[in-house]
From TrEMBL:
Keyword annotations of the record: Membrane, Transmembrane, Transmembrane helix
Protein name (record): Uncharacterized protein
Region: Disordered, residue numbers: 72-97
Transmembrane segments: 25-44
Length: 97
């Protein structure tokens, strides 16, 4: 019984080791560092640079557009007292008179 879980654990470790190229120890770590560095410089960094460049271009375009709309004053608050009122707006409450 005890040997079956040990055998299963050994099989899992063997499978993981083989799926990572069969390398062990320092060479395995070095190969993962090289692969990670290549992936970063070939895929991640260019996409980040492109996104940053697009944001800078958009900011420059927004700053240089003389016809863009800019709100110059605060909006006037709605004077109603008791939430939204639907229906006839001019109706007054006659019980108060």
């Amino acid at each position: 019984m005890a040997s079956s879980w040990r055998r299963t654990l050994g099989n899992v470790r063997s499978f993981i080791g083989n799926s990572m190229g069969g390398l062990r120890g320092g060479s395995n770590l070095a190969s993962w560092v090289v692969a990670g560095s290549l992936a970063y410089f070939l895929w991640v960094k260019p996409s980040q640079d492109l996104k940053r460049e697009q944001q800078e271009r958009a900011a420059l375009a927004a700053a240089s557009d003389p016809y863009r709309y800019v709100e110059k004053r605060k909006p006037i608050p709605d004077p109603q007292d008791a939430g939204l009122i639907y229906g006839n707006k001019n109706r007054t409450n006659k019980t108060e008179e």
